[in-house]
Amino acid sequence: QLGFDLPVNPTPSLMSQKVVDTERLILSHDTDQLMNEFNKVDSKTRDVLRLVDSIIHSAYQVGSPYFLLCGCEGVKYSLGHGFCDTSAPALAAFAYFKLMLQQDFNGVRFYVDMIVEMVKKSKLSMLSFGYKFYGFLNFWYVPLRETQTILLNLYKKAIRKGETAVAYSSLTGYYRFSF
Hints:
Layout: H1 12-27, H2 31-36, H3 43-62, H4 66-81, H5 88-102, H6 105-121, H7 126-136, H8 144-161, H9 164-176
Helix pairs in contact: 1-4, 1-5, 3-4, 4-5, 5-6, 7-8, 7-9, 8-9
């Protein structure tokens, strides 16, 4: 009913093709217009993207190829229904794999900038999303000390809210950038 294309047995070549297809779809849209209409979506769209985010998070935790595949499907869904704060994790998953599979640092910068703009325009809780975005993607484009500071602040917020898994991951990222 949602139109998601999630194969039962994803192959590396299929995953690479998903990245190419998703980027082609993104570039066929006016991203400025998408960002101007940011967060003007209905509650169903937001709920679907929250579900996609939950799957992405779970897939990330277990190292599943559905991390990428759900990211691509979430981006496609956002393109068809509107971008909102809960589109950011899907776009980040897509951008991460584009970076890892194609090593296209300049091309991925465009998506990182979109995500940063989404975060600024939204009330997105950076606790569950932030340590992954700043620790695995954004650090390629900002000074490492800036990333380290952001991760330490995420750690402090997570501790105050009792989000121990996020606190641990943020602190681990902080120390990773302390070299």
